[in-house]
Specification:
By secondary structure, this protein is mainly alpha-helical. 78% of the residues lie in helices and 0% in strands. The protein has 16 helices and no strands.
Length: 330
């Protein structure tokens, strides 16, 4: 199993470096913002067309497993990030703290959750169901949960504006794409590898646009190196705690090891593919955008790195026929 340092990771780092050295400003920045907004809408149109109804509603018999994953994603994780706002501002600037709150309320990652569950010989159908449902409901839950956390932490967040933008720029394209799925499915299956590249291209575009805007607003003057190192350390700590809690709960209620793997991977992951486009909508025009998305970018790379080793651990412990046994319903 190779370490997950790939072209996508290199491109994201390159986007940050280029934005630092040559940030786009003025009318060019406005044009880039408009292009990225349209690209995000098209991205969610494709997401809606790709996702089948069966993926959304399948696996209902695994109710204990889905409840645990949903609780980890939208209850436990938000509670865990809330104390971050209590850190001194010289170490944890307000926009960076808001980024951790945003990380806490994001849905689970679809692709990596399913991929690592499969690598671990875990319950793949349940992982598909939970991760897909998490992303669909996450588009509606994330703004409300962020409002709740920001209010608890003493911050401000305009949920009405955010919800309007979510509906117009994300939900509407998603459901239009899903409605047109019967007409588009053959072309989608034919060009599916290109759609994956498009996903990654949109994320890199958002990263460059976001960091350009933030660099122009003095990001690196406001964000000391100690804060970056603290962000990385906290992301490692959050991931470790959520994985440990997922394992403890799964074992306490007696889930098979294959189901435990699905709980661990789906419950501990956060979606960069959904997180950055949603952030583009929720925090449009925010001068601290680069600082806000820094935690999810760090967490994404850490979860992939740790997931590779964790998948190997489960692969050694789960028998080859375990996934089939765990799919009989619980």
């Amino acid at each position: 199993m190779r370490l997950p340092v790939n072209l996508f990771t290199v491109l994201m780092i390159a986007a940050i470096v280029i934005a630092t050295l040559a940030p786009v400003t003025g009318q060019a920045a406005e044009g880039l913002s408009t292009v990225s907004t349209l690209a995000v809408a098209l991205l969610f149109f494709f997401h809606g067309a790709v996702l089948s109804r069966k993926q959304i509603v399948d696996g209902a018999s695994h109710w204990r497993l889905h409840i645990i994953i949903t609780a980890m994603t939208f209850v436990v994780f938000p509670i865990l990030v809330l104390p971050v706002t209590l850190a001194p501002t010289q170490w944890m600037p307000a926009d960076l703290a808001l980024g951790f709150l945003y990380l806490g309320v994001l849905p689970s990652a679809v692709t990596s959750s399913i991929a690592f569950t499969a690598m671990a010989r875990g319950n793949v159908p349940a992982a598909i169901c939970s991760a897909a449902a998490s992303n669909v409901f996450g588009m509606m839950l994330t703004p409300f949960l962020l409002l709740l956390l920001a209010s608890t932490a003493g911050g401000g967040f305009n949920v009405a504006e955010a919800l309007r933008d979510i509906v117009l720029q994300l939900l509407a394209p998603f459901f239009i794409g899903h409605a047109l799925r019967p007409l588009l499915i053959r072309q989608i299956d034919r060009y599916r590898p290109l759609l994956s590249k498009y996903d990654q291209g949109v994320i890199v575009l958002i990263v460059y646009s976001a960091f350009s805007q933030s660099v122009a607003s003095g990001l690196w003057q406001k964000l000391p190196l100690a804060s970056v190192l603290l962000t990385i350390a906290l992301c490692f700590l959050l991931l470790f705690v959520v994985i440990l809690l997922s394992q403890v709960v799964a074992r306490r209620i007696g889930l098979p090891l294959a189901d435990e793997a699905a709980v661990v991977f789906c419950g501990s992951k956060k979606s960069l593919a959904s997180g950055l486009p949603m952030a583009k909508v929720l925090f449009a025009g925010h001068p601290g955008f680069g600082m806000i998305v820094l935690p999810i970018m760090c967490y994404n790379q850490i979860q992939i790195f740790v997931g590779a080793f964790l998948a190997r651990y489960y692969d050694r412990r789960i028998p080859a026929d375990a996934p089939g046994e765990s799919q009989q319903g619980h």
